[in-house]
Amino acid sequence: MTQSWTLTAYIAKRFLLGIAITLGICALLIFMIDIVELLRLSGKTGEVPMLALTEIAFLRLPAYIEFLFGFAVLVGSIGALMMLNRKNELAVMRAGGMSVWQFLWPGILVGLIIGVLGMVLYNPLAAAGRDSADRKFAKAFGSEKNLLKAQGGGTWLRQAGEDGESVIGAAAAANRGLKLTGVMALTYDRDGHFSERIDAANADLKEGYWQLRNGWVTRLGQEPEKFETYLISTHLTPDRVQDALGTVLSVSFWELPGLIEVTEKAKLSSEKLRIQYETLWSRPLLCIAMVLLAATVSLKSFRSGRIQTMVAAGMFGGFGFFLISEISRQIGIAGLAPAWAAVWLPVVLVLVISTTVLLHQEDG
Fold first, then answer.
1. Residue among 112, 15, 69, 13 at smallest CA distance from 322
2. Are 159 and 235 contacting, i.e. CB atoms less than 8 angstroms apart?
3. What is the helix (H) or strand (E) element at residue 195, kind and residue range?
4. DSSP for residue 162
5. 150 pLDDT band (50/70/90 cuts)?
6. How buried is residue 228: exposed, middle or buried, by Cβ count under 10 Å (0-12/13-18/19+)?
7. Which of 88, 218, 270, 323 has its CA 20 to 30 A from that of 253?
8. What span, in angstroms and rounded, lies between the C-alpha atoms of 344 and 337?
9. How does DSSP classify residue 149?
10. Please, what's the largest Cα pairwise distance for the chain?
């Protein structure tokens, strides 16, 4: 049976509608939860206008939805195939000589397009919205987010510069990491040997160096010397420090390669950025895998019964995949596995398993 473009468009429209409805429901739930959390914070820190809170929630929403692309494709595809199955449209297609791959390929195409557009177009828009939301959040609640803050309450930064590596500690960071107060720095020469300790009241990040003011410098075998201004070289630039040390949600797909290069040059960990970059690259294949996974549990006839069990198994399999995928991501972030392996192996695994199951179901 030759598949007409009318039938292809009809099936693709079903998949697209199912995915869109799933994303819409998820977006509404996320928005409501975020608004409630912002209201809670507003009640603790002071009165913030409802309009400002709503604007922040709307700007953050695309970045949160981005996490659910794979889940939305899975659930939307299950819904689309079940509707086609319930109306016996799949049975008619099969009777006309169509194989499972023929009526699945429109869904696969929809998943591929969603994955590609999500990577190259949606992600930059979501990143820009998240960055704007962070700025508005800081303005509304009266304090900048400390992008350098560690769990112990202090701020520590390991970096490299023209003169060698250095470690900078500070009591607090402001202006999105550009200004440090209560600074203590340990510098090393190009051979990695300890050079000096600097204690300063504050430090500002300039182009190619940190400018420390009002402090003391101590060298081995020498008396401490007081200074008004002291410079420590760094490869970390002002326009990159907030991204390199902040959330990857505010960095777009197109900015990640350059940011990874700058981060590694500054001798900072780039694993989280590499994981994010590989995750975005894998999104088209992930969406295709979710369509195939949905097909493994949605093609059984309603008359045969146990369709609810099959769908529940598909949802359970989807949650299992996302759990394994997140564990693999954390392993990659910890540096225990290459970034490409941590991201791509779970996706390839579910793709192979789904294809194998479909081949077994259709061809025996």
1. 69
2. yes
3. strand 194-206
4. T
5. very low
6. exposed
7. 323
8. 12
9. B
10. 92
Give Cβ neighbours of residue 255 (< 8 Å, ≥ 6 apart).
Answer: 127, 243
> Would you say 18 and 102 are in contact if contact means Cβ atoms under 8 Å apart?
no
Rounded to two decimals, the pTM is: 0.72
Give the single-character DSSP code of 331. H
Is the pLDDT confidence value at 259 over 90? no
Q: How far apart are CA 276 and CA 332, in angstroms?
A: 10
CA–CA separation, 55 and 53 (whole Å): 5
What are the pLDDT digits (tens) for 54-69? 999 999 999 889 888 9
From residue 228, alpha-carbon distances to 100, 188, 212, 318 in Å are 75, 21, 8, 60
Interhelix angle for 271-298 vs 256-265, to 10°? Answer: 140
The encoded tokens of residue 122 equal 């949606």
Burial of 269 (0-12, 13-18, 19+ CB in 10 A): middle
DSSP state of 105: H
Token match 């146990």: residue? 306
Three-state DSSP state, 165: strand
What is the C-alpha separation between 115 and 143, in angstroms, rounded? 36
Q: How many CA atoms lie within 13 A of 237 on its CB side?
A: 8
**Whole-angstrom Cα distance, residue 244 to residue 303?**
56
Location of structure tokens 């003011």? 213
The 3-state DSSP class for residue 94 equals helix
Contact 253, 123 (CB under 8 A): yes
Q: How far apart are CA 111 and CA 80, in angstroms?
A: 13
pLDDT tens-digit readout, 219-249 = 887 888 888 899 988 877 665 555 444 556 6
Residue 306 is predicted with a pLDDT of 65
For residue 332, which phi and psi values (nearest 5 degrees)?
A: -65, -40
Residue type, 39: L
C-beta separation of 109 from 15 below 8 A:
no
Tell me how many degrees the CA angle 150-151-153 measures, rounded to the nearest 5: 70
The one-letter amino acid at 337: A
